[in-house]
Amino acid sequence: DGGITQSPKYLFRKEGQNVTLSCEQNLNHDAMYWYRQDPGQGLRLIYYSQIVNDFQKGDIAEGYSVSREKKESFPLTVTSAQKNPTAFYLCASIGYTGAFFGQGTRLTVV
Amino acid sequence: KQEVTQIPAALSVPEGENLVLNCSFTDSAIYNLQWFRQDPGKGLTSLLLIQSSQREQTSGRLNASLDKSSGRSTLYIAASQPGDSATYLCAVRDNYGQNFVFGPGTRLSVLP
């Protein structure tokens, strides 16, 4: 089955802790994106990558980091510098047939 | 900077009605436009993709149109069903293919 997989579905972070959200795709897409969604708000772009070993900051990159060592994988790390990390995080890969999204990770600070 | 708006923000209709959701964008230099559906707590499901050279796309009871010159797209849902209840988002991708901008969504409720 072709698709995009995010894990875990739920994640809890303690104050001062870094956590990493996983995103894997087997659609052979070059471009991958990370978005943040807050209740009642639209999607905001955190980081995107057009090709392996390259990535660009989006509108709200502060407190986040990414890597793109493999075409299939684009993990997002939420660092302790992100002051308000509680949100729903969505990963997408984009090709000629459009954008495809994972099922999301809900991150909560405890 | 591309901005995408959607009207209405919320819509409630009785089952069986035909309805139209609207999406507007400020920069007509787009690569494509895509409509998505999002159920509560879930990811986005792609509904229809319209390339910049196309005027409309159809899938089952859904029809999406694109008018680049006026910066508008509409999503038409025929014979609505309670299962259509969800938030509908449109997104545009610019000509450079690097930026994908979302609208805030329309929250649809179809009442049985």
Q: How would you characterize this protein structure?
A:
The complex is a heterodimer of chains A (110) and B (112). The model of chain A has no long low-confidence stretch (mean pLDDT 93). In chain A, the strands form 2 sheets. In chain A, strands 2, 4, 5, 6, 9, 10 and 11 form a 7-stranded mixed beta sheet that branches. Chain A has strands at 4-7, 10-13, 19-25, 31-37, 43-51, 54-57, 64-66, 76-78, 87-95, 98-101, 105-109. Chain A has 110 residues and is mostly beta strands. Chain A has no helices and 11 strands. By secondary structure, chain B is mainly β. Chain B has strands at residues 4-7, 10-14, 19-25, 30-38, 44-51, 56-59, 62-67, 72-77, 86-94, 100-102, 106-111. Chains A and B meet through strand 4, strand 5, strand 9 and strand 10 of A and strand 4, strand 5 and strand 9 of B.
Class computed from helices, strands and strand pairing of chain A: mainly beta
Order of helices and strands of chain B: EEEEEEEEEEE
The greatest inter-chain interface is formed by: A-B, 24 and 21 residues
Strand content of chain A: over 45%
Secondary structure: helix percent of chain A = under 10%
List keywords for this structure.
heterodimer, A: 110 residues, mainly beta, 7-stranded mixed beta sheet, B: 112 residues, 11 strands, 0% helix, globular
SSE diagram, text form:
The complex is a heterodimer of chains A (110) and B (112).
Chain A: E1 4-7, E2 10-13, E3 19-25, E4 31-37, E5 43-51, E6 54-57, E7 64-66, E8 76-78, E9 87-95, E10 98-101, E11 105-109
Parallel strand pairs in A: 2-11
Antiparallel strand pairs in A: 1-3, 3-8, 4-5, 4-9, 5-6, 7-8, 9-10, 9-11
Chain B: E1 4-7, E2 10-14, E3 19-25, E4 30-38, E5 44-51, E6 56-59, E7 62-67, E8 72-77, E9 86-94, E10 100-102, E11 106-111
Parallel strand pairs in B: 2-11
Antiparallel strand pairs in B: 1-3, 3-8, 4-5, 4-9, 6-7, 7-8, 9-10, 9-11
